[in-house]
Amino acid sequence: METTGEYRVRSRAPDGTAVCVPLDDGEGEPIRVESDDITPGNRVELALSWEAGAATVEAVDVLEDSRISYARGVTGLFEDALSAMDEARRERLGTNARTTYSTDGEPNGAVYVFADQPGERDLYAEFVEGVAPLEPLLDRLDEHEDCPHHVFVLDPAEHDFLVLYLVLRTDSVLARTVADTYC
């Protein structure tokens, strides 16, 4: 059987396969595929053949060259992330978000913080494995500017929150600075 569909590449597994989440009917069950032509964050159209429940990539078309980077044990978090965490703690919220701005006052991203759920869920692993939803957050970012984004999934060493930083443009100084600092 052959199928074609749109996917978001969420990560690369230790065995080199890419974890992809289908986008055609919302975020469905993630699949693993072997392909050197895709990078975590890419929105792609995949032509797949299925044999014994395993998907083989027949063709790849990169539709959006967005990026996703992951880092555990990060230190020295930026001020907007720390402020969002502090506000969430004060208000007893499990999650919080805020828009970030350039020095010119223009929106350049959004930071989301999610309280750890010890013993229940590993949110970092859920984002890596494509289980935690990401597309609704990217859709909100597209309202500002429809361009490739860079998503940073940061698991701080000294804080009990997961940080998701959606940077508006992959080619921005901000995206390069965050990548150089944390990834």
Number of strands: 10
Q: Proportion of β residues?
A: 35-45%
Q: What is the CA-CA span between the terminal residues?
A: 39 Å
Query: What's the pLDDT, averaged over the residues?
Result: 92
Q: Structural class of the secondary elements? A: alpha+beta
Strand order, main sheet: write it out.
3-2-1-4-5
Instruction: Describe the sheet with the most strands.
Output: 5 strands, antiparallel
Our Rg estimate from Cα atoms comes to 17 Å
- Given as residue ranges, the uncertain stretches (5+ residues, pLDDT < 50) are none
The shape is globular
Count of alpha and pi helical runs:
4
Commentary on this structure:
There is one protein chain. By secondary structure, this protein is α+β, with helices and mostly antiparallel strands. Helix content is 20%, strand content 42%. It is built from four helices and ten strands, in the order ββββββαββααββα. It has helices at residues 79-91, 123-128, 135-142, 173-182; strands at residues 2-12, 18-22, 31-33, 43-51, 54-64, 67-74, 95-101, 107-115, 150-156, 161-167. The strands form two sheets. A five-stranded antiparallel beta sheet has the order 3-2-1-4-5, with no helix packed on it. A five-stranded mixed beta sheet has the order 6-9-10-8-7, sandwiched between helices.
